[in-house]
Amino acid sequence: MASRFPLVSCDEALAVLRRFRPLGSEEVAVADVAGRVLARPVRATLDVPHFARAYMDGYAVRAADTAGAGAAAPARLRVAGAVEMGRPAPARLQAGEAMRIPTGGMLPAGADAVVMVEHTVEPGDGTVRIARPAAAGQHVMRRGEDMRRGAVLLAAGHRCRPHDVGALAGIGASRVLVYRRPRVALIATGNEIVPPEVTPKAGQVRSINQYALRAMIVAEGGEALDLGVVPDRHAAITRALTRALGTADAVLLSGGSSVGTKDLTPAVIRALPRARVLVHGIRIKPGKPTLIARVGTTPVLGLPGHPVSALVVFEIFGAPLVRRLGGQPEAQAFAPRVRIPARLATAIVSTAGRDDWVRVRLEERDGEWIAHPLAGGSAEIASFVHADGMLRIHGDTVALDAGARVVVQRFC
């Protein structure tokens, strides 16, 4: 089918999406910060740890009191009590004394080392025999050794991982300023689409894009607002899009972006106030009829209706947009999250002048990754289910030989 719109390159389309900026910020409880992007740096409000502590079970000592100790001639020190977890040491350690201490216990004043319990013997006479000399600082974490007060723990733009939540709690950050999670409205169009629980009649298909894209939006840090399936009617699509623009930070329309008689999305968008179609048609396969628009300040991404095309286009364009709106730095938002160097298992023929995105299955063999291209058209979902990622064949390349080195964008 001949194109009725000027095509742009993949990189030109991505450059258009880079114009959109992160949303505003909000404060959330630290328990809810996983997956959110920090809007400002988080600094330690106190030294971590804020007291010197042992990181071995044993005895707190003055290192000088153990000088020359050995199995044949152990140092003999008076046991001056024990440190309890969560409490300060009961007394200052004097010369010739030792104090029992657990891992994490507060080092008593006067002590400068910890001797592992394995290198000691308590004969029961109120003393402890130490069979190895200790060096000052041995098995001790000094105050501020992990982090000094005022030091940056996590930078602005960092997307918090589960273990970051623990670190934030550890420095007393009970509430954290993060970028707002982008609300992404999802509209699927098509008279032929039925819900998964319905047995499709002749000419009908189950709703694939609606469910897959909703999950992909959430995986990238967005909040999916599913507006359901809309019939291929100008008025119905207009109502759904108007509703979406009133509640969402971005809109995804699945289907209706090509040049067929039922592909109404471009006309609907152009008829809206303050609307501008920025891109309509990209030199890629799959995904040629992809549309990028702006209505007011809201980005609108029109995806092809064929399932594989829609999912590939979301990986290339939708995911970076959601990440960027959610506050990730531009370079990070538009970079693949995981890139795997691999060798191509079989040759691939491409078409000059467009970027081909090929789904591949990865196999580890003899310490390196082998990428197996998967056959399948734009509507064949099996190729996506069995794929571990996809690779990009640039428009100036017409073929890749078997054994060629490639980089695979791994699906997360």
Describe the structure.
- The structure is a single chain.
- The protein is 18% helix and 31% strand.
- It is α/β, with parallel strands linked by helices.
- The chain is elongated.
- A six-stranded mixed sheet has the order 7-4-6-5-9-8, with no helix packed on it. Strands 16-13-17-21-20-18 form a six-stranded mixed sheet, with helices on both faces.
Largest sheet: 6 strands, mixed
- Summed over residues and divided by their number, the pLDDT gives a mean of 94
Uncertain regions: pLDDT < 50 for 5+ in a row? none
N-to-C CA distance: 34 Å
Number of domains: 4
How does CATH name the architecture of the largest domain? 3-Layer(aba) Sandwich
The Cα radius of gyration reads 31 Å
Alpha plus pi helix count: 8
CATH hierarchy class name of the largest domain: Alpha Beta
Give the number of DSSP strands. Answer: 28
Key attributes of the depicted protein:
single chain; 412 residues; alpha/beta; Molybdenum Cofactor Biosythetic Enzyme, Chain A; Molybdopterin biosynthesis moea protein, domain 2; Molybdopterin biosynthesis moeA protein, domain 3; 6-stranded mixed sheet; 8 helices; 28 strands; 31% strand; elongated
What's the gist of this structure?
With 412 residues, the protein is α/β, with parallel strands linked by helices.
Secondary structure elements and pairings:
Blueprint: H1 10-17, E1 25-29, E2 42-43, E3 53-54, E4 58-61, E5 75-82, E6 97-101, E7 113-116, E8 120-121, E9 127-130, E10 140-141, E11 152-154, H2 162-170, E12 175-179, E13 183-189, E14 193-194, E15 205-206, H3 209-219, E16 223-230, H4 234-247, E17 250-254, H5 265-270, E18 275-280, E19 284-285, E20 291-295, E21 298-303, H6 307-325, H7 330-333, E22 339-344, E23 348-349, E24 355-365, E25 368-373, H8 382-385, E26 389-393, E27 399-400, E28 405-410
Parallel strand pairs: 5-6, 13-16, 13-17, 14-15, 17-21, 19-24, 22-25
Antiparallel strand pairs: 1-12, 2-11, 3-10, 4-6, 4-7, 5-9, 8-9, 18-20, 20-21, 22-28, 23-27, 24-25, 24-26, 26-28
Helix pairs in contact: 3-6
